[in-house]
Amino acid sequence: MVKRSRVHRIVNWRSPIGSPIYNVPDEILLTIFSVNTISSGEQLTMNEYALPVAPITTIRLSSQVCRHWRELILGCPALWRATTLNLNELSLSRSDNWAKEVLSRTKKALIAVRVVFKEDRSPQAMISFFFKVLDEEWPRIQHLEASVDTRAGDYDDDRWLSIFRPTENLRSISLHFPMDATPKPFLSTTSVLFSDHAPSLRSISIRHMPFQLSAVPWLSQLTELRLAGQFAPGSILASLSATPSLETFEILYPRDMVPPNNSNAHLNWSKVNLPKLKCLITRGPLEACLMLLDQIIAPPECGLDFGSHTYSAEESLSPAVGALARYCEGYFKTYNPPLIELTLCPSQFGFHTLRQSDIPPFDIRIENLNGFPSMSCLFKQFVNCRFSGASRFRFDAENGITFLLTDPHFSKFISLLSSVRRLETLAKSLVYLSQIPTQSDVAFFPSLEWVRVARGRGIYPESVPQMIDFLLWLKSSGGSIQSIDIGVQTGLEDRGVDLSPLEQFSGLNVQWSSISDREEYICGSGTPERLNFLGDPMLLENRYEPPPIPSFPASRYVFADSMFHPSFASSTSTPAFAYSTAPPPFAYSAFPREPLRLLSRSRDEQPRRRRRRS
């Protein structure tokens, strides 16, 4: 007689009456199951973090708990549809049996299909099953997301052309291909996407696939349009004129795209009004990106993610970037982002706000491949902005940006940061601030309370005069700070940093991190030697280097002295200061001066004693 499997016994096991979970009404159970199978729903995105357990695995395991749960789950095709047919999670390495079973359990429900073809990790069974679903199940596909991340492999299947058939139910489609590796069927067809019929479509994202971008009927209902490839700005604007409901627009031009010959051609184009636009994303040559920005009329609350490159000199760059001012002023009149970040180097300009879920981003990154002769025209775009909500300012500026020292628009930009309370910067970046001419009617950083100069690699001996110059400049402009963070003590000692000259700033709280704690010193207290980190021999002699932490369960290790709570020694809980695996070299524990000892050993782990030979 064949012995029944464990799963068979579990599925046919009758639930105990006393267990509360088995008495939950079916409606509530189905709600719980559906919440556990949420993957992406309306908005599929290639950047989504993978869940610890795939939704399809969750629903499969739930169906194996007992007979009632199995009947309930198998009788609800919407649950299987909601899990998304993620072909990368359906064990398609050898066969498509399980994938076919999942597809059959969806019955006639609408489905979402997702697949990422990766180099050396896309078995033929997965490729074949995807094209089979695309061809045979096209009428009931509601969300489609396919990405080819490799040029290796044969993806030139004619069944790609299924997307040129009409569709009643498709709500979102995302097709991403490598540049110069578009499947051949797309290159040889002149058909129109969806045969001009996709009444439910709301989101489309296509990268490096040529198609006719004309004023087709389904454009009018789109809320999201993302494109990447060689699209002429004029044709894009013509299509955007038919998208009054658009909320997100993204265009990624190839880096080697040749800009339009006539830089003034856009002046003859009609403006495009997008009253519902919430976020505009552009990448590519500066001239092409700015043509779009100049012709699009967006609401003031529209966010901007602008990344571009150029070879232009200051004379030709200045009139071009004027289109940015309108977006800057409208955004900062509507939103008050708490963090503003400015990153500068001789060939790059970066302005960023803190990413938040409730407001759109505002990021500008411009690279001048010949190096910036000046950034004055870029700072000029912000002179009418209000940064009243910014309480934090991150400022990183590389060496060699000499034109900042005499740029009045840079000074004006800094003067707008009147509400900033926390400054995070590098000591070398302070030079550009302390060189700004003070003005009797302008106070720089009047609300500043705390400065951290330990970003990046920390501070060095040459950082000390830079910090002093900044504090003196701040004082002369009517400002002052309460605290300054100088980083980690070990780094200061290794570099031989002497910060005792800060003693002159009475009341200044200097903070740093030691091996196990945070320390501070109030300047003017009379013991400035505490700020001398030149490497005291006593400190170097007593410096502790922790022993290597074994890779066995850390819960069995505690510090030898009984200075901790007994629960730390419990084998059922892991101390906060213990490592579950060996840490990287020179990673210090929270309590470094006590050795580790083994709490208990099993019989198998007892050390073997060698017998003495007689």
TrEMBL record:
All residue ranges annotated as the F-box domain in the record: 23-82
InterPro entries hit by this protein: F-box-like_dom_sf (IPR036047), F-box_dom (IPR001810)
Domain of life according to the entry: Eukaryota
Short name of one Pfam family: F-box-like
Spans through the membrane: none
The name this protein goes by in its record: F-box domain-containing protein
Source organism: Hebeloma cylindrosporum
